[in-house]
Design brief:
The structure holds 2 protein chains of 2 kinds. By secondary structure, chain A is α+β, with helices and mostly antiparallel strands. Helices cover about 45% and strands about 20% of the residues of chain A. Chain A is built from 3 helices and 3 strands. In chain A, strand 2 and strand 3 form a beta hairpin. Chain A is elongated, with a radius of gyration of 19 Å. The chains are: A alpha+beta, B mainly alpha.
Chain lengths: ~100, ~230
């Protein structure tokens, strides 16, 4: 969720759609249960929200905070390290590899 | 007519979620308004895909989850939010009561005639005076614990049972505080009810009573969960 808000503020449903599009449909939770996660991230100080209006109805728009941007960078780095380590472990052995004595 | 059917379906779905949500009316209205906006966006996308308006709304609500699922997902955050607001209000009212008490003592003073001269009435008055002096500390500590336990962390630090226990402790302490103040007012000398003292005592009672009402609201929401 932090990653999809990196480009700019979005309303709740736009966040959900962005998650579905980015994951090519793999993230497909009941849509109405994703809003509380946005609220938790806001309480954690990683997002901030503002109410506005569109087409005569109220709309809540979320944006990444400085803390959210730092948390995203940290999680991205951790994930990249994790993928690199697991990739090394799972990679098929090359010719030069030797079993330990 | 299909337009009205679609609006009716949406309203019925949101009304049911609003009915199931715990918490104060304003917080529930915010949740329902946000869901309405999302559902209308989703339905518009389905309509662009060729669905009829009422089918688009039906499809959108189906993907959002049942009202019970949506309400259950929102309940913890609503309860935490209410708990934090109540804790801040209780602390604010206690602080105001403390400042009022200090002003009372320093500006108006406490004449000896306020304290009953002897007997059980005097003992009761003195015990209740001690209760009123020390209980706010317990209340403030419990409220502070609730604030720390529901702070800027992804999940509540405190297990729900501890949060409920602290909320009940705050309410019990404030109830005892109100009881002690009532006893002091009933047993104190006539001097307690003269001029400015009456106003100050009434203000103190109002502030502590307000804190008690607020903490009772928090306890009610904590134990309510999603309405059945």
């Amino acid at each position: 969720m932090l990653a999809v808000l990196e480009a700019g503020p979005l309303h709740g449903y736009a966040v959900i759609r962005a998650l579905q599009v980015r994951s090519d449909g793999a993230v497909d939770l009941p849509t109405g249960t994703i809003y509380p996660v946005l609220h938790r991230l806001e309480r954690a100080g990683l997002l901030r929200s503002e109410w506005g209006s569109t087409a005569g109805r109220r709309r809540r728009v979320y944006a990444l905070t400085g803390g959210g941007a730092r948390a995203l960078a940290h999680q991205r780095r951790d994930w990249t390290d994790f993928v690199a380590v697991v990739g090394d472990v799972l990679a098929p052995p090359s010719r030069g590899d030797h079993a330990p004595a | 007519m299909p337009r009205r059917d679609a609006a009716g379906l949406l309203d019925a779905y949101l009304h049911e979620i609003g009915r199931l949500l715990p918490g104060p009316a304003r917080a529930r209205r915010d949740v329902v308004d946000e869901l309405r906006d999302g559902l209308l966006e989703a339905a518009a996308a389905h309509r662009d895909g060729g669905l009829a308006p009422h089918v688009a709304i039906r499809t959108a609500t189906a993907r959002f989850g049942t009202p019970a699922e949506v309400a259950a997902a929102h309940a913890p955050e609503l309860t935490l939010g209410q708990s934090r607001r109540s804790s801040w209000r209780v602390l604010g009212l206690l602080l105001a009561a403390g400042l009022t008490w200090l002003a009372y003592r320093h500006v108006l003073g406490v004449p000896a005639s306020v304290v009953p001269a002897s007997g059980p009435r005097r003992e009761t008055f003195l015990i209740m005076t001690s209760v009123v002096q020390y209980l706010p500390l317990a209340t403030a500590l419990s409220s502070g614990g609730l604030l720390l336990g529901t702070g800027r962390l992804l999940g509540p630090v405190l297990p729900d049972r501890c949060g409920r226990m602290l909320a009940c402790t705050v309410t019990a302490a404030l109830g005892a505080h109100v009881g002690a103040m009532s006893t002091i007012m009933a047993t104190g000398g006539a001097e307690l009810w003269t001029g400015s003292r009456t106003v100050a005592v009434a203000l103190l009672a109002g502030l502590v009573g307000g804190a008690l009402v607020e903490s009772m609201r928090a306890v009610r929401f904590r134990f309510a969960g999603p309405h059945p």
